[in-house]
Amino acid sequence: GLYRSIWRYTTFDDLVRIAKAVSVGSAIMVVLFTLLFRFKSFPRSVFIIDWFILTVFMTGSRVAARWFHELPSREEITGKRVIIAGTGALAEIISRQVRKSGTMRAIGYLDDRAEMAHRMIHGLEVLGPIAEVEEIARKHGADEIIAVNMDAGRIPQETRAHLAEAGIRIRAVSDPSEIPLELEDHGGERPCGERNVLVAGNGPLVEQASALFSTASNLAVVSNESGTLEGASRHAGMGGPRPVCFLGIENERVALRRVLELLRPEFIFADFALRDFDIENPDEAYLRTVMLPLEKLATEVARLPEAKLVVIERGVESVPGDAVGATELLVLDIFRRDVSRLAVVRLDREPGAGRWQEIFASLLHEAGGVFRVTQVEDGSGKFAATRCPLADSIPGSAHLWLELTRLLDDGNAASAMHVLSEMARISPVKEHV
Predict the structure, then answer these.
(1) How confident is the model over 345-390, as pLDDT tens digits?
(2) Are 278 and 296 contacting, i.e. CB atoms less than 8 angstroms apart?
(3) Tens digits of residue pLDDT in 406-415
(4) How many whole angstroms separate alpha carbon 170 and alpha carbon 157?
(5) Which residue from 323, 234, 224 is spatially nearest to 283, judged by alpha carbons?
(6) CA–CA separation, 239 and 6 (whole Å)
């Protein structure tokens, strides 16, 4: 398999495989020549020289190919000066991506261990401990601090404020698979820049709100789960706005309406998801965790004349497809007078943290409707959004889920049981709802 590998992605493991293959080949040649010619006409040094030349040229060609592809896009880089907080494996990946970016230049690392001070890693110096980040950043003229994992939380809030005043950004990176995208410059345009944003629900998007909407004027997070709000607060303070958090108002129409009137958000993102501990009865959990809160939120958002609602729709394997389709039908019915203010995003798979920005940057400029987000099959890892017909693939019995949601919301248990019986006749639905 040596010649099936792609040279530009050569790693140390590939070099070891080459050395093993050449060694095995040389050993076979030695045995054959011993049996056939008894080494009478061949000096033994020939085999050593042959092994050395083959190993050097086969490994050297692959290393050269990778080195060529990892060269910066310009010979002279005059981009942002970056300091990387941390010296572990993730910091090494970030350093490599910064070199390849062509828009940034790493100038050193930060590490709290005394024995690491002023040591060299890949040609870059460890400038000092994270506690002295402000002094080090000013001394070396840094434009940005890229903090690795939990190292970002060790930078005091006061220090962050001083760095922000000096125009030095702090950026947290936690997902190695998204590092290439997180370090990209998205053409200077960030989703919801200088706008008021509200994010509601309990899904991954809510916890990442501060990082995703780092240029929003004001950011609010609404959730019924305290753990989700704690996650949102942990992501705050890395160059983005600290969100105003509201707990337990998703199912309270009056409280939700007051929050919307107070904040006047221009973009509202709804990400309601089932947790593993919700799946004792998936039908009931989906109704109470996803459909009922979403119905209340969409109804109140529809009252705001200029606000746009973005609904993240995830297919749930343990829940009937009728219920997932009814969620889409629910919000479309609420916004039937002005569908341009609604975007329903169907996910085939979960994008990483860094991919949401490119998805929203394209969707928020589109007219409203239903969009399916899928990963592009070109190896780039990017996601693309395609518009779907409004009635595309919504199950025929979804209207029963919609009716059941509204009856439960109104507290009409008798009518809800009647609808539930009809649903059980059409498709298997659990009776605990």
Answers:
(1) 888 777 765 677 778 777 777 778 888 888 777 666 677 788 877 6
(2) no
(3) 666 666 666 7
(4) 11
(5) 323
(6) 38
Integer-rounded Cα radius of gyration of the chain: 28
Question: pLDDT of 93-104, one tens digit each?
Answer: 788 778 766 678
What is the sign, positive or negative, of the torsion defined by CA atoms of 50, 51, 52, 54? positive
Residue among 207, 209, 213, 214 nearest 229 (CA): 207
Measured CA to CA, the distance from residue 401 to residue 420 in angstroms comes to 9
Burial code (b: 16+ CB inside 10 Å, e: under 16) for 47-84 equals beeebeebbeebbeebeeeeeeeeebeeeebeebbbbb
Q: Report whether pLDDT(268) > 90.
A: yes
pLDDT digit string, tens, across residues 173-195: 655 445 555 555 444 455 677 78
Can you tell me which residue has the tokens 């400038």?
127
Task: Quickly tell me which residue has 């609904």 as its tokens.
Answer: 311
How far apart are alpha carbons 130 and 64 in whole angstroms? 36
Residues with Cβ within 8 Å of residue 288, at least 6 apart in sequence: none
Count of beta carbons in the 10 Å neighbourhood of residue 202: 25
331, 365 contact by CB (below 8 A): no
CA gap 70, 422 in Å, rounded:
62
Give whole-number Cα distances, 258 to 241, 247, 304, 423, in Å: 21, 14, 12, 36
102 dihedral zone (left: phi>0; alpha: psi -120 to 50; beta): left
The band of 393, judged by pLDDT with boundaries at 50, 70 and 90, is very low
Are 390 and 412 a contacting pair, CB within 8 Å?
A: no
Q: In sequence order, which residues have a C-beta less than 8 Å from that of residue 404 and are 6 or more positions away?
A: 287, 416, 419, 420, 423, 433
Token pair for 154: 């060790």
- CA within 13 Å, CB half, 186: 18
d(CA 287, CA 330): 12
